[in-house]
Design goal:
Chromosome_initiator_DnaA_CS; three-stranded mixed β-sheet; five-stranded parallel β-sheet; Helicase, Ruva Protein, domain 3; nucleotide-binding; Rossmann fold; single chain; binds adenosine-5'-triphosphate; about 450 residues; Chromosomal replication initiator protein DnaA; GMP Synthetase, Chain A, domain 3
């Protein structure tokens, strides 16, 4: 059985960089009692950082996972010598409360279209979010649904759209909520028997932005409430923007009538960033941080780190801290040394044997089948997918890939790459397989 903290950590793992998790969250010791999650920090510095950056989120996730309000306590101590009397925390209600009486949008105004780096993988999403922000409430783009793997900029675009709407239309009521906040608001309203308030609050906004709706899965009552809220907003042309970590129909335990409705408006996929976009993001973010990063170093990192943008940010933070600390310039060697652990983790996931294994499992074949000479239709397609993925995700040359796939010629690999690129445009099934496999291989 996984403890509440294990499950909470698994969620945080998807939201913060690996570096953050290792530095701040893994060192915490934990004591769980019914209704109480006690987190013990090794010192006051860690405690303050965790409080500032993670506590609110830990509180939300724990409430959500436990389906009740958990008393999260953060204190300095260790399991060997627990501190019996914690100093008073921020009052819990303050952490949990989500919509204060005087209307607040919950938008983070640091995220804008200006500091979003556009590339092939996200340009449709950016354009759609921008259009919706300029013309909210149009039927053909309601709801706007941004979907794709973790850390690819969906929340960033959602905030950017909300911020722009508010800038263009003073007094425009935009409300941003994570799906768990919607859920916990609903539970509180149910307990306090004031569902009417809940309904009217959500329905009185001009634009409702709900992040990560995959977490509605299996929560039937929440889905039903959301469905009604959705209909009410839709009918009066109030804008709805949603994000989801996959196409909603692929989320298990979601009501079909809800998922079909979510597809009515404008669903847009956000893909993992390609090499150029990764390099551009690194250069722009380094510039914002005042870190001197040469193109050569940015290209090295972009070539070797292929996962989500959040990990690129984590890498930059590490570089920036090291550079600051040592006073050294960020050369290739310096970056390789500072990022050694991160780069090793990435490379393991993206080795040819691992890609072959993931594709074989996905296609319900054995790796030996992929490497064999046999050519049934299903087998040949899986092999072509695996070769094209290897080309996309690693720096191996065509002949090297051919060798690793049972000694095939480099022209066979080239043919596979071209065919798969074409099928991704024309065939929904191939596109879906590709997206799922990319997600499985790069979500770290
Ligand atoms: N194209 C981009 N340009 C600039 N920053 C980006 C871009 N894409 C992502 N980021 C940054 O990466 C981090 C993660 O992005 P974000 O939180 O929007 O991801 P997400 O897709 O919503 O992921 P999740 O589903 O895990 O919430 C943020 O700090 C965001 O600013």
């Amino acid at each position: 059985m996984h403890t509440l903290w294990d499950r909470c950590l698994a969620r945080l793992d998807a939201e913060f960089s690996e570096q953050d998790i290792l530095t701040w969250l893994k060192p915490l010791q934990v004591r769980e009692e019914p209704g109480v999650l006690r987190l013990l920090a090794p010192n006051a510095f860690v405690l303050e950082s965790v409080r500032e950056r993670f506590l609110e989120r830990i509180q939300e996730i724990s409430n959500f996972l436990a389906e009740e309000v958990v008393d999260v306590r953060l204190e300095v101590g260790s399991l060997a010598k627990p501190k019996p009397a914690p100093k008073p925390e921020r009052p819990r209600a303050e952490v949990v409360a989500s919509i204060p009486d005087d209307f607040e949008s919950n938008l983070d105004n640091h995220y804008t279209f200006d500091n979003f780096v556009e590339g092939k993988s996200n340009q449709l999403g950016r354009a759609a979010a921008f259009q919706v922000a300029m013309n909210p409430g149009r039927r053909e783009s309601n709801p706007l649904l941004l979907y794709g793997g973790t850390g690819l900029g969906k929340t960033h675009l959602m905030y950017a759209a909300g911020n722009l709407m508010r800038r263009n239309r003073p007094g425009f009521k935009v409300l941003y909520q994570r799906s768990e906040q919607f859920f916990s608001d609903m539970i509180k309203a149910l307990n306090a028997k004031n569902m009417d308030d809940f309904k009217s609050r959500y329905r009185s906004v001009d634009a409702l932005l709900i992040d990560d709706i995959q977490f509605f899965a299996g929560k039937d009552r929440t889905q039903e409430e959301f469905f009604h809220t959705f209909n009410s907003l839709f009918e009066s042309n109030q804008q709805i923007i949603l994000t989801c970590d996959r196409y909603p129909k692929e989320v298990e335990n979601m009501e079909p009538r809800l998922t079909s409705r979510l597809g009515w408006g404008l669903p847009v996929a956000i893909e993992p960033p390609d090499f150029e976009t990764r390099a551009a993001i690194l250069l722009k973010k380094a510039d914002q941080k005042g870190l001197k990063l040469s193109e050569e170093v940015a290209y090295m990192i972009a070539r070797r780190m292929r996962s989500h943008v959040r990990d690129l940010e984590g890498a930059l933070n590490t570089l920036s801290a090291r550079a600051h600390f040592t006073g050294r310039a960020v050369s290739i060697e310096f970056a390789q040394e500072a990022l050694r652990d991160l780069l090793t983790v990435q490379e393991r996931a993206l080795s040819i044997p691992n890609i072959q294994k993931v594709v074989a499992d996905y296609s319900q074949l054995r790796v030996a089948d992929l490497l064999s000479k046999r050519r049934t239709r299903h087998l040949a397609r899986a092999r072509q997918l695996a070769m094209a993925l290897t080309k996309e995700l690693t720096t191996h040359s065509l002949p090297e890939i051919g060798d690793a796939f049972g000694g095939r010629d480099h022209t066979t690999v080239l043919h596979a790459c071209r065919l798969i690129a074409e099928l991704r445009e024309t065939d929904g099934k191939t596109r879906e397989d590709w997206d799922k496999l990319i997600r499985a291989l790069t979500s770290g």
